[in-house]
Amino acid sequence: MSWEMSGKYVASCSCSLICPCPVDGEPTGPNRECRGVAVFHIEGGKLDDTDLSGVDFAFANWFPSNLSAGGWKVGVVVDQGAADGQATALERILHGDEGGPFADFAALYGEWLGVQRASISFSDSDTPSASVEGSVSYTFEPLPGIDGGVTTVKNAMYGFAPEFMIGKAPASSTLFGLDFEGVYGESADFSFASEMPEGAAKGRA
Q1: Which InterPro entries match (predicted)?
Q2: Which residues contact 67 (CB under 8 A, 6 or more apart)?
Q3: Is residue 202 part of a domain?
């Protein structure tokens, strides 16, 4: 099967500024681990004949050490407005069953926490925000760059985009029992597919 999706995401995690996970460094959150959540808004996408356009989902993580060490805990929340077929398609993609970048990530999963359904909101602006009803809500504030621009990370070993804004995203999350207080944040446009361009960094979604 072939799949693709594109849109925008905004994330929050427990690491201090700046999160070292994208460069395979040791997490700087409490207990030297990283707990976080990234909420994605799919502007356009599909798995074969299943249209994923307009669906929001959250990807919750627990990284016990640097990313390449593996042992991740991962859980997914799909917006309750999505059809059952859309939720099933996303589960297959994010679990790594359909190939592509999430199959690379899946090799590092230590425990798959499953898929839940809840109301998810996503607001795209200069300071994007997201929430999963009853579990987490946060707003991303980018770190200022030169001449009023924003600070970005580019060509990192791990990431949801080849270049992403970094900043602050205070949050208090209880998703999947992976409770954390968010400090660091990031946001970018994303584009994933079962067949990624030649030369894409290993592990990058």
Answers
A1: DUF1326
A2: 21, 24, 108, 157, 158, 203
A3: no
Determine how β-strand 109-118 pairs with β-strand 120-123. Answer: unpaired
Per the structure, the count of domains in the chain is 1
Is residue 197 one of the residues assigned to a domain?
Answer: no
Q: Residue 94: which domain range?
A: 3-184
Q: Tell me: the pLDDT tens digits for 48-57?
A: 999 999 999 9
Q: What is the largest CA-CA distance in the chain?
A: 46
> Got the DSSP string for 10-32?
EEEESSPSS--GGGTPPP-SGGG
- The percent of residues in the chain predicted with pLDDT above 90, rounded, is 92
Eight-class DSSP state of 144: B
Residues 67-103: pLDDT tens digits? 999 999 999 999 999 999 999 999 999 999 999 999 9
Mean pLDDT of 157-168: 96
In a domain, 201, yes or no: no
What is the SS3 assignment for 40? strand
Q: Are 156 and 66 in contact (CB under 8 A)?
A: no
Residue corresponding to tokens 């077929």: 85
